[in-house]
Amino acid sequence: MQRVCFLLKVKEDKLEEYKLRHAEVWPDMLAALSETGWHNYSLFLRDDGLLVGYLETPDFQAALDGMAKKEVNDRWQNEMAPFFETLAGRHADESMVPLEEVFHLD
């Protein structure tokens, strides 16, 4: 299982609404994530907007590619795009660059 951690930046004036949106993720979005190999997926948000994402998956690129084919993902990404800084016209899921894992306690 591949462990993936990534960073994104949520706009500070959108933090509360971002948290509310994730308290009620659409059921079809949750199903799509599970179907495409996103396991143990968590998001952590610092009060300055730093977002840390973590997931486990057999193949991160396959998980991204699988979600890219889902209509619900396109709708979700379009709705969430205004919440993020520095996406340069891309969706958040297209901007997830995995951090290098340097230690893991088994």
Explain what you see.
The chain is α+β, with helices and mostly antiparallel strands and 106 residues long. It has a single domain (6-94), classed as Alpha-Beta Plaits, CATH 3.30.70. Helices cover 35% and strands 22% of the residues. It has helices at residues 15-23, 27-35, 60-68, 71-80; strands at 2-9, 39-45, 50-57. Strands 1-3-2 form a three-stranded antiparallel beta sheet, with no helix packed on it. The longest helix has 10 residues, at 71-80. The model has no long low-confidence stretch (mean pLDDT 95).
Keywords:
3 strands; alpha+beta; Alpha-Beta Plaits; 106 residues; 4 helices; single chain
pLDDT average, as an integer?
95
Structural class: alpha+beta
**What gap, in angstroms, lies between the N and C termini?**
13 Å
The biggest sheet amounts to: 3 strands, antiparallel
Strand content: 15-25%
Low-confidence region ranges: none
Read across the widest sheet, the strand sequence of neighbours is: 1-3-2
How many separate helices?
4
Shape: globular
CATH architecture level-2 label = 2-Layer Sandwich
| Total domain modules | 1
Rg, Cα atoms, Å: 14 Å
Write a short abstract of this structure:
The protein has four helices and three strands.
Furnish the topology, listing elements before pairings.
Layout: E1 2-9, H1 15-23, H2 27-35, E2 39-45, E3 50-57, H3 60-68, H4 71-80
Antiparallel strand pairs: 1-3, 2-3
